Records
---
Amino acid sequence: MAQKGWEIENTIKLVDPTRDALYKYDADKVKKLNNERPWRSDPNHFKHVRISAVALIKMVMHARSGGDLEIMGLMVGYIEHETFIVTDAVRLPVEGTETRVNAQDDANEYMVTFLERSRQAGQMENAVGWYHSHPGYGCWLSGIDVGTQEMQQSINDPFLAVVVDPHRTISAGKVDIGAFRTYPQGYKPEDSGSSAEGMAAVPMAKAADFGAHANRYYSLEVSHYKSTLDSKLLEALWNKYWVQTLSSSPLFTNREYVTKQIEDVLAKTALVHDSMKKTSGLPPMGPRPKTGNDQFAKVVKAAEKIASEEKMGLVAAMVKEKVFAVAAPQLDRAAHAVATDGGDTQMADVKVA
Amino acid sequence: MAGKSASINPLVLTGKAPDTTQHVQLHPLALLTISDYITRHTLRSQEGPIVGAVIGEQDGRSFTLEHAFECKLQELNGDVLVDGSWFAERLEQYRDVHKAPPLDLVAIFALGPVEGPQKVHLPMLKQVQQLTGNDSVMLLLFHGELVDHLQGGKLPISLYESVQEQEGAQVKFRELSFEVETGEAEMIGVDTVAKAGTAATAVQRADTAQTGESSKKATSSKGKGKAKDKDKEDDTETAGILSPEDDELIASLTAKANAIRMLNDRINLIRSYLTTLPPSYLTDANSTTPPPRDTTNHILLRNVNSLLSRVPLLAPQSPIVALSNGHEAASAIPSSAAPAPAPAPSPPSSGIHAAGAKERQDVHLTSLLAVLSRSVAEAQAMGSKFHIVSREKENKSRPAFGGGGRGGGGGGGGGVGGGRSLGGFGEEGLTGEVRGAP
C-alpha cells in the first residue's frame, strides 16, 4: 500500500538502533530468561531499573491525579541481566490501596483484558511489575505492600514494586520514586540497617509500619531513558515550557503540604522529647542514647529537607522579582519616552492589550 | 510515492478559520506517547501504518489532548481502518481510568506529510467519528520529515479538524492552531526525563560501567551537567560529594538560568527584528519616507506593543496609583512624573509587598527551625558522649582512689574537662557553640 511504504521509509530515519536499543523486544530472549530463572538462587539478583520516559510521566501523573488517595497501576516491560526495563505503565481502576489487602483482585479482569488487547495491537510485553502511590509519606513498602509484593514474586516473578510520592514530587520539583523487591520468607539480609537508614524521613503516623517491615525488602537503583526521537521533541518542547519554569510559584502551590510536613516534624520532636524525659533519670547506658540520637537525627533530616525545599521556592520567587519587577518601572518609562516623542501619534493611549 | 504537489492539497481548506475557532491545548505526554510508539513500532518492525487515538477533555469549543494510545488496525477493501470492536472496548477501558476529569476521544493520530491529510486518512477518521458518534474528532498528523529540521521550537505536528460544507460533499480539513499546556506533575516528569533521562542503550553485563558510560552520552546539552549530578545522586547520601539537597538546589538554579537565557534570547530576537525595520515617522518626526504598507507585519508590531504595555503591570505598584481607575492610568502616571524620582520602594504598604515579605519570613523561619534542631541534636550527641566518657573516667579512677565521693567530684570536674577533651577528640566541631546549652 502506497502509504505504508512511504511511512516506513520515513520512520527509519527517526530511530537509532544503538541508542534506542531498549525499545526493541526479543520475545525469545525473554522466554529463555524466564525459563532459566537466575533470580531464584539469588534474592538480590535484580539491581537496576530503567524506566522509559512515557512510563515515568504516566505514573507521576496518575499518582498526582489521585490527590491524597493512593492509586495503583501496572507496569509492562521485560528483563535483561540484572535489570528491569519498564516500557509502559497502565492505570488500574482501584483506589485506596493501602488499606486493603486484595485491591489488586478487583482490577484483575481489567488487567487481563487490557494486556490482551495490547498484545493484539502489537505491544507484546508482559506485565513486569506494579506501581502505587504514597501521597506525602515517601517511597517505601508498607506491611500490606510487602505482603502483596511477596505474593506477586512467588507467582508472577520476575515482578517489581514501584512507589511514587506525588506530593514530594511537586514540592521538590523532582520525581520522588523508588523501586523495591522483597526477600523470600526467612531470608536475613546481611546489612539489615542500611535500607532503613537510607530512607528519607517517614512521617510519624507511618513510622511504625515502616520500621516493622524495612528489613524484608531492598531497593533497586532507578534510572530513566528516552528515545532519540523523544530527545528531539523534548528540545522543541523545552522552548515552550521554559515559561512555566520561570513562572511557577512553588511556595504558593505547596503551602498545605509544607504545613503538614512541619506539623509532622513537630510531632516527632515531641515524641523524642518524651522518650528523652523517661530515660534522663537513669544513668544513660550505651544503647539508649543511641536510639534517641537516631530518632532525633531523622527529625533533623526532615527539618532540613523542609528548609531546603522552601529555600528553593524562595529562590524562584526572588528570581521572578529580580527579572521582571525590579526593572519594570524604568522599562515602562523608556517605552513611553519613545512613544510620545512624535506628538501627533497618540500611541500611549491606544493600548489594546 | 504518490505525486503530491508541493503546496496545494485539495483536501485542506485554506483561509482564515471562522470566528468560532477552537481552543486546543496539547500536552507533552500525548506527544511523547506518540513518539514512543513510533520508536517501538519501527524498531520491532511491526506491520501496518502508525495510527492511534488521543483522549482529552472537551469543553464546548476548547479541547485538550492529554493521553494517547496505539490502535489495532484492519484492512478493508484497501482502506486502513481501526478494528471497530477492539477500538470501542479499548476506549472504554481508558474512559474507566480517566474519570475525574472525564476524558474522551478527541483525535486520532497518524503519520502524514506536511501538506496535510491525505486520502488514506479519510476512511479511518470517518469510521472513528461514526463509532463514537462524535463529529468533531480531530486528526493529528506527525511529520517525520520535519524532525531533523526543527527550528524555533516548532513541533513536527499539525492538527486538523474535519469540515463538511454540505451533506454528502467531500470532507475537507482545516488546520487548527494549538498551544502546549502542561500540568504540574507532567512538567516535573518531562523535566526529569529531559535532564536525567539517558540514551536507551542496551543493558550490558557490567551494569555499573554501562550507566557511567551512557550518562556521558546524554543527548541534550542541558543534560551534560545533570548527568554527572545524577550519578552522584544514585550513590547513597554519604558517598556523594554534594548532599542531595545541594544537588537539588543546583538543578533548580540551572533550570532557572536556562529559562532566563531563553527569555534573553527571545527578547534579543524581538529587538533585532525591530531595529531592522525601516525608519518611519514614528521614530523620527522629520522623516518623510512613507511607512511601507506591504512589508510591515502589523500584527507582530501590535503584539510587541501590547507586550510593552503589559510591562508596567509587573512593577510593584505604589499605594497612590493602586486606587486609580484601570491599568492605563497607572502606567500613564509614571510617564508624567518622569522628571520626579521613581516611586520609591516604600514600606510594604501594598498587598504584594506584604505577601512577599511574609513569604520570605516564613522561609527563613523554616531554615531557623532546621538549624535549631540540628544544633540541639549535636548538643544531645555531645551530651551522651560526655556521659560515656565520664563514666569511663569513673570506672578508671575508682580502683585507683577507692572512694565514691571522689567519683562524684570527678564527675563534676570531669564535666568541663570532658567538654574540653571532647573538643580535643575533634568530634563534633560545635562543642564551642553548645557549651552554653543547659
Note: Residues 192-199, 284-289, 342-353 of chain A have pLDDT under 50 and may be disordered.
---
Amino acid sequence: MEVKTSKGHLKVHKMKKKVLRKQVRAQHTLMRHEGIECISHPTQSLVIANAGLGNGMSRQQLLRIVEEYGLVETLLMPPNKPYSFVKYGTTEEAKKAFDALNGKEVTLEDFGQNIVLYINFVEKAQKTLKHRRVKHFGYEFCYDNNNVNKDKPLPGGLPEICDLFLEKCLKQGYIEHKPDQLTVNQYEPGQGIPPHIDTHSAFEDKIISLSLGAEIVMDFKHPDGHTVAIMLPRCSLLVMAGESRYLWTHGITPRKYDIIQASELGQKVGTITADVGDLTLNRRETRTSFTFRKVRRSPCNCIYPSVCDSQKGQQRQVQPSFPHNDMEASKLEQEYVHKVYEEIATHFSSTRHSPWPRIVEFLRSLPKGSIVADVGCGNGKYLGINKDLYMVGCDRSKNLADICGEKNFQAFVCDALSVPIRSGSCDACISIAVIHHFSTVERRLATICELARLLRPGGTALIYVWAMEQEYKNQKSKYLKEKNDSKDKEEEINIGGVQRPLSDQMPDSSSQDSACSDRLLNDLNDEGCAAKLVADSRLPVHTNRTSFHSQDLLVPWHLKGGTKKKGESIDTVSSPAGSKESQELSPVFHRYYHVFCEGELEAACRSLDCVRVQKSYYDQGNWCVVLEKL
Amino acid sequence: MKLLTHNLLSSHVRGLRPGGGFPLQIQASEVRVRPVPFNAAFVARLVPRLRWAALLEAAESLGHPSELPPEPAADYEGDESFLRRVHHILLEVEVLEGVLQCPDSGRRFPISRGIPNMLLSEEEA
C-alpha cells in the first residue's frame, strides 16, 4: 500500500499548478498572435503548443507521439509555426492524449533540445488562417525586412481622393510632412496584426491612421511590460508620435470580440480601464484602416536607441571614454545619462518608491511654509513627503518630470547646471543621486554652485552621491547585501574603487548672480584617496552588486517587465527562427557614474566661499553633505 | 504649474542683463482651478518670499484678477480674508497647457500637462 506524505502531495500540487499556469499562458499567446481560440470542453481536435515545424519538431516524431493515444485523422503542421493540430477519431482519444501530453517534456530528435508540450482543445484543426488584406500606395512595404524600398516608388503615388484629408491633417498639426506612403489594411473579425513598432529608419515621426467601417481595440505595450488598450472608434484618426511611435509596440489581437467601456461605445477614443462595472463585449465588424506615413530619407536619431534600427549598430561599436573637455562631457552625459533615463523612466520610477529615512528627516526638520527645490527629482519620490513645505522638483528627463506631473506635484524640465529658479528664493534644496552623473570635476562643482545660488542666506542643501566605498566601517551597504536577492531592484548605492587623479585647475565660474568664488582643486589631492593612474581612458562597465574598481564607470540597467517573477522562464511558446516576433532579451542600458571617494564631496563643497558644510556623513553606500548658505 | 511656482521661475537664457528673464509671461491655453486646503500660517510664511508685482500680473494674464492690493498691507499676517485670496491665487490656479515667454530674449518654453519644459539647447545655455 502506498502512502503519500503530505510533502509529496504538496509537490505534486505545485507542479500541476505550474503546468496549468504555463498552459494558460500558451493559450493567450496563441490567441494573441495567431487567432486560435482554445476551448475548455473536450473535442476531437487539439492544438499542441511548442511542437511545430517552426520550432524544430518533425512530422515523423510528432506522429509517433500522438498515434499512441488513438486513431489520428489529421495531423496539421503549418509551416514556420511553433504549434500543430491533431484530430482524433473520437473525443475520448483526444482526451487521453490531452491528459498524457499536457506538460510533458519531450526531446526534439533533430536538435537534441528539450521542450515542454502544452495542449488545448480547439473547435477545428486549421491549416492556415485567413490573413488580413493589405494594399500599399506610394512605396511598397516589404514584410521580410519591415522596411520600404526607397529607390523604387510605386507609380501613381497616393490616390487623389486623400489630398484634401491630408491637407487638413497638415493644417491641424497632426503631421509635419505630407505623407508619401499609404498602407490600407482590412480586418475581418478574427484578424489582427502582431505587436510591432513601425521601423524607425523607414518612416518619419508622426504616423496617422484613419479607421473606417468599425471600431476596434488596439493594444500598446511598453518595453517594461506595461500595456494600454485603446479604443479606436469609427471615423477616428490615430496619431502616433514620439514614444508611441518609436518605443511602444502596437498591435491588434486577432479575435472576434473586444472588451470596451460600455459608457463610451462609439463615442470617444479612450483607454480601456479596469473598471469592471463598465465593461462590455463588442462584436467586431470589418474595419479598414488607412495608415499614412512619410518615408524617411536620413537615419533615425530618436531618443530610444535600444529599439532603433538606425542607432543599434552604432551603439555597440563606440566605446565611450573619459571626457577631456566640457563638450565631450556633455556628449557622454547625453548618451549615457539623459537618453537612458528617458527610455527607462517608467521602470525606473517603479523601483524608486521607498524614501530614505535620513532624507525624510531632513525634510521634516524644515519650518512650515519653506520653499524647497528638489534638483534631479526623478519620479517625485520626495516631493510629497512633507505637506507643510512647498516643494518644486526639476529633472533633466521629460518622462520623469511628466510622472511627477501625473502625481500632481510641481515640477519642470531643466538641466541641473542651469536651474531656471531665481537666486536666493529657496529655503532649502535637495539633490539626491544626481551630481554623480556629471562627468568632469568642473561640471560637478558647477551643480553644487547652482544649488548654493538657489538658497537664501541661512538656507540649507542636502546632497547625496554614490560612494566608491560600498563597505564602510565593516558594514556592507544594502547594494552589496542584496547581491543574492532578486536582481530586479537596484538601489541607488555607490561603490568604492580605485581613484583617478583629479584634474588640475578649475576655471573661474562665471554663473550669474553667483556669490561663489572658486579655489583650485589641487587641494583635493591631499584628502586621503590613493591616486592611481589609469592607463586606458575607456570607461569600464561595472558588474552590478559588486565593489567598484574605478571612479568613472558605466553601470548596467536591466529593463524588466512589470510583473515578471523571479525564476519564471521567458516564454512557453518559443518563436520560430526568422519570425518577426523575435523574443528579445530584456535590453541593457549603461549609465555613466562618477562615484565619490571619502571626503571628495565635502572637499568640493568646502572649496566654495558662499557655503559652509554643516554636516557630512555616510548613509547606505552614499556620501552625504548638508550645506548652509552664508 | 501653480502661480507660486511661476513666481519662482526665471529664464536662464545666456546673455541676459542682470535681473533679466523675470517674470516669464504666461500664455495659457488651459487653466484649471482646484481647491487646496487653506492653512493661514503656511500662506503667511510665503508672502514675504513673493515677487508681488509679478504675481498680480500673472493672475491678470490668466483672467483671474486677484483682487489683491498693489502691496501686502503691514498687518497681512492677521488678515484672514487677504490670506485666503493669496492662497487661492498662489495654490489653486494651475496652468495645464500653454507657453512661458522670456520677456527679454523672447524664448518660449512650452507647458504640457502642467509641466513646463525649461530645457535649453547647448547653444542657448
Note: Chain A is about 20% helix and 25% strand.
